[in-house]
Structure formats: structure tokens, C-alpha cells
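Assess this:
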Amino acid sequence: MSLLVRRSRAAKLAAGLFLGAFALAAGFPVHAQQDAGSAWISLGRYTATDMTAADAARVRAERSAIAQEAAFFAYDLSLPGWKYSQAVCPDIPGHLILHYRRAAHNGAESLFTAMVPRDSGRVQVVPVLYRGATPFHSAVGSERSLSVFNRAVPGSLAEKELQPSGAWLQLALCYAELAGAEPRVPRAADTDPALVRAPAPTLLISEVNHTASVTFTDRIAPHRYTVWTVAFDGRGRVVAATATSLGDYIGRNVHGKAPEERPLPAQSQPKIIPLPPASEPKVQSPPQ
């Protein structure tokens, strides 16, 4: 397999030449309970009852801190109906990523992400939804999401993952999870005529300043999908992100600011370079 060059909207943001990569990241974890052997790629995800004993104990120990931090962002965990689940991200080894959800009587959902340190440190909350409405700044590209993610991911690990042979798709999915999503990425091109424009997972790397962006498709419903683009600087820090819903209606940007359209320089000719052999994604088994 070779690297496929894609001129996506993210590429048009670039000031220099980009190399495009299309491949699954080596050793990418697959959610065993729902997606193992299926057409989807996703991070491991556990309900509160499926978590390991150590992780469950850590959540109990930080229950008060989680409630206090959530209250700062106007979430009241004393109300009945709150439930949480855990997303497993190898690129954030020092924290538990928890999605807290509560549905109102009319079905409107409240949602936030809690980053709970495995050892010492402060619980951090990223607000996502308030009774079905997004905050003033969407979590997808908010300063809060960017700063929390960049503090949680070791810089050396981010730089390693953003190499063509690294787990760059995994890193971008970790950011999407922190921003409140639970993405499912198609393993192969979708045959649904409404989804023929859905881009495959793509890594774009600038040869000028070594910045990078990852684009992937999240299948959110029949005939609908969200296109994510997560941009990184030369040190592997996330600097921007967008998520645009497409499918049975075209081009509605539901999260973050729409990328600015800028043409690539005329002299920029993308190169095609060979992709290192990819290993079969590992299946992550739920804890016993």
C-alpha cells in the first residue's frame, strides 16, 4: 500500500507542501464489546460496571473532586440520572477519560468529559452539552479542550504518533473523545451513495514547518457522518479542530469554525512515499 495524497479542506490551510498518508495506525485498539471484527474502528469503551477494579476505585476516590469541578461549569451531579462511561486512550496514560451524561425529561442531553488523574493532580472538566445545547464555544475547537488535551498527552508521545508510521489516527480519536464524541471510523469506503464523499483517514504533514493535521470520518447515523480535522503544530500540540456533519444534508458545520479556504501554492507538488507495513489492529478485551 502507498500513501495516498489528499487535498482536503485541511490541506488548503497549509502554507507549504504536505504529504498525505492513508493507513490504519499500527497496534490500534478496537472496542471488543461492539466493534471487534466489524467494519468500525473505535477506541475501547467501558461502562461504569465494566471498568477495571483499579479504575473504578480511582473514580470513587475522586467523586467529590469531579462533582466540584463539574459544578464550576454548571453541571449538578447531585441530580438523579447521571451516568458515566470510560474511553480508553493509550496516548493519555496518566488520566481516565470519562463521559458523564444525563437526559432531561424531554430527552435533551447534558454531557461533559472529566479527565481524572490516575495518580496525583487536579480533575479537569470539558463542557460539551447543556440540555442539548452547546456552550458558547463548542468543545470541538475550544481553548479548554485544546489546553486539557495538550497537558494530558506527553509531548514526546504526540510527536512520535504524528509520524507516518505512528498511531496518528488513534491520537486524533483521543482528542475527539475528550471533546465529547464517541467516533466510529469506517474501515473501508462506505457503499452508501449518500456517503461517497466521506474522506478516508488521512495524515497531512508539512515539509516546511512540520505541522500536521489528521482528517477522519465518524459515522454518526444512517446516511450521515461527521468529518473531523485535528491540526497539530510542529511539537505535536493540538492547535485547532473542526467537525462538520455531512450526508443527507451537505456542508452543515455543527462544531467549531469552518476552515478558511486557501489554495495550495502553485509550485507545491505532493509526493507519494511508501507506507511502512501495517500490523493488524489489536483487539482490546474488556476487563474481567
In short: Residues 168-178 form the longest helix (11 residues). The radius of gyration is 19 Å. Residues 103 and 109 are 4 Å apart (CA to CA). Confidence is low (pLDDT under 50) at residues 1-36, 249-288.
